[in-house]
Amino acid sequence: MISLQKHEWFSNIRTDVLAGLVVGLALIPESIAFSAIAGVDPQVGLYASFCIAVTIAFFGGRTAMISAATGAMALLMVTLVKDHGLQYLFATTILTGIIQIVAGYFKVAKLMRFVSQSVVYGFVNALAILIFVAQIPELARMNLTGYFFVGLGLLIVYLFPQIPKFGKIIPSPLICIILLSLFALLSGAEMRTVSDLGKFPDTLPIFLIPDIPLNFETLKIIFPYAITLATVGLLETMMTTTIVNEVTQTEADRHKECRGQGIANMVSGFMGGMAGCAMIGQSIINVSSGARTRLSTLVAGVFLLCLVVFFKDGLTYIPMAALVSIMIMVAFTTFNWDSVKNFSKHPKQSNIVMLTVVVIVLATHNLALGVITGVLLSALFLVNKLENEVKVQSELFNNNTRKYTIHGQIFFSSSSKFYQFFDFNESIENVIIDLTHSHIWDMTSVTMLNNIQAKFSNRGVKVEVIGMNEASTTLVDRMS
To answer: What is the pTM of this model?
Structure first.
């Protein structure tokens, strides 16, 4: 046990520390930008990113993965903060954590196998569009100078990674912030800066209990938001876990990760932060930099807090144009362009699922509702496909024996169509039902099979069922 913990923490010290420093720097602009999206002071997002990153380093189930404040979660908090205030946000964050811990113990992560690729495409595409749309109000406040800075920021974010050696070492969002801040300071350009968003933290986060009434009315307010945040947070976390697993060729404990995310969000809520989850972009930066252990996640969180607490004066000069350009690039890189490029090559049903998820999310700003609808729609399409694939071949032997060979999956939806394949009025003596190429799944199918046998028997026809596999036989024996 001790050797395993040592391997998870200290098997890759030098690379993990460097990777953590890079990610810590890269977390600053996004934490501030996500705070702006949620409509809260920068310190709320920064405290959240610190608390969640540090906590998940100890309690998460996936090493080297980065969790912090995210755009997907921030978008869900806008109405809550606007209508009820910051204290209700803290309470919702705590309840979100509790729900996620319960989900981890009940192994809800197993449900991820029902999320199809089409739903995932719809999820990330809708998230990308929402992040882009969230920048429009800030863009509307800008003058020509602001637009120039946004364009310049986009060029930096896009072109800097192309520079040999340096482009892969230092995150381009950080370079964008440094260069645009220096340019604005030296040129004396007047524009909105991060300091206009609110105050930065000047102390370490302290424990607090949300100042709200502890009654049923409060629960009615925060519970719907908490359920949505918990669902979206776990969805994005599980998707990120899958990606990091593929990159590192290792496996993670998804159920432990669910519980870890819950603990992290509870800590964030009690420390004055907002809810967060795993970050796809930052996690990829981390593992691509060579990080493989929990140490990288811990270093990222601690370094982030040190920067914003002890070097906050420099951060207040960051122009909002820099953050807007970063978030626009985040939106463009989050969007799955292959889903559009290969749209005509994908099955029609897959495209319908993806578009449905996107439309519902954009209409409701509820990522969880979009995903749940997509999963249900995928299931309906699958049921319809399996139903249409059921085939029955009929052969007559010796003018007195009819053999029915069934191909496909027999379940509640397809079983109702079975009667049309059988001729109960034919003058024969024997019927053979061959199930070698089929499988019986449920009680409805067993009842259907029994009824068919009974109908033939009532007409004096002998029925023989052959080729039933072991699982189908067990189900039929039990139900009959």
So the answer is: 0.69
